[in-house]
């Protein structure tokens, strides 16, 4: 039985382990140069500052940049990426490069080949992605801004470089998967060609299925079966597209166990308001796009970031490597509208929001509006019946020594899930019963002399 601890409060927030120092708290700043060059400014306590300095001061340690092949406006092309990467490195931050392999946005609904590669034979296309990948890394290395992590494709759930590398729906065939994997391998080969053996650059593969375990398994089962070698499983998670936090939690824990690879949320974000400041339609504008318990307010945004942070931190076996907040910089500028203005980490005037403190602190475990857990409780596991895994939720109102144990129907102890001192808070534990037989099991919570027991059913 594999049992993992999720959303675990820290018993001593004053101490920072080496593992925590390595945990990625990143932001995607691909829009920054365009915002700045159209008059956008960023402030903290009313004083204008370099946004990179602001973010670094609040424990952001990584910046993600996308690269387009030949963008019409020039933004996100190689020269602009070099310009931004230089600023990132000078600030002492790490740098993730996100190859889109397109001239424009690449996502699950659109993976258009660069104009320069249209009409090429498959073999010539493979040669082109290899040479392009190699050339980009060579240029970055020349300017001493080699990425610390490289992402091959952006949200490539349905493949990339369509139609040669397309794998969804009618393209979901062995031949198409062979082509898709072949293209990815050439991209990786080109990237690694100019990376010295002493450079610890990680390769990430990124899909959008944050809360979709079935879709995630389908993709990575197929990709790994084709022999693609990579280091990081990357996901996007936006609640209005990708399900609940419980969906995300279940998925990342399952993927970490199933594939043994580190997990990073390469994109996530949450709104601080549903109002607007320009004439550009906002992507998030309706209350039905929100998570229950997370209002579109600064405190709701902060709570979302804190819970995301700790959900990833508590992926089993230290497989949760971090997360990136997507485009906290994409504010409305005097000469530039933004569909993301209400999902940034700055208000409409460019002033830093208090939600930035989510990156400063560790998870407190406090869950309701007055910051107190009101009662000791053990919830019914979900799903129930389950196959093969489920989530156990509970709350403790005081600093307590907590145990959770699982028993079979004869009362024989199967597993100790928790045995530690915990601070007041709401907790979730991921329980994998893949090695157990069908049947009825009981899980028992003990804390400060209080006991609660629930029944759960494993049904295959």
Short key terms for the protein model shown above:
Immunoglobulin-like; disordered N terminus; four-stranded antiparallel beta sheet; 460 residues; single chain; TIM Barrel; eight-stranded parallel barrel; 10 helices; 18 strands
Layout of helices and strands, plus pairs?
Elements: E1 2-6, H1 18-22, E2 24-28, H2 32-37, E3 43-44, E4 47-48, H3 51-57, E5 62-67, H4 78-90, E6 94-99, H5 122-142, E7 149-152, H6 174-193, E8 202-207, H7 213-225, E9 232-237, H8 239-242, H9 245-259, E10 262-268, H10 298-313, E11 320-326, E12 377-378, E13 389-396, E14 400-408, E15 413-422, E16 425-432, E17 439-447, E18 450-458
Parallel strand pairs: 2-5, 2-11, 5-6, 6-7, 7-8, 8-9, 9-10, 10-11
Antiparallel strand pairs: 1-16, 3-4, 12-13, 13-16, 14-15, 14-17, 17-18
Q: In words, what does this structure look like?
A:
By secondary structure, this protein is of the alpha/beta class. The protein folds into two domains: 352 residues, Alpha-Beta Barrel (TIM Barrel); 82 residues, Immunoglobulin-like, CATH 2.60.40.3080. Helices cover 26% and strands 24% of the residues. It contains ten helices and 18 strands. Strands 2-5-6-7-8-9-10-11 form an eight-stranded parallel β-barrel, surrounded by four helices. Helix 5 runs parallel beside helix 6 and helix 7 packs parallel to helix 9.
Could you give the order of strands across the largest sheet? 2-5-6-7-8-9-10-11
Mean pLDDT value:
90
What percentage of the residues does DSSP assign to strands (E)? 15-25%
Query: Architecture of the largest domain, according to CATH?
Result: Alpha-Beta Barrel
Major sheet size, sense and barrel closure:
8 strands, parallel, barrel
CATH topology of the largest domain: TIM Barrel
The poorly predicted ranges are: 1-21, 362-372
Rg is 23 Å
Percentage of residues assigned to helices: 25-40%
Number of H- or I-type helical stretches: 10
How many β-strands, per DSSP?
18
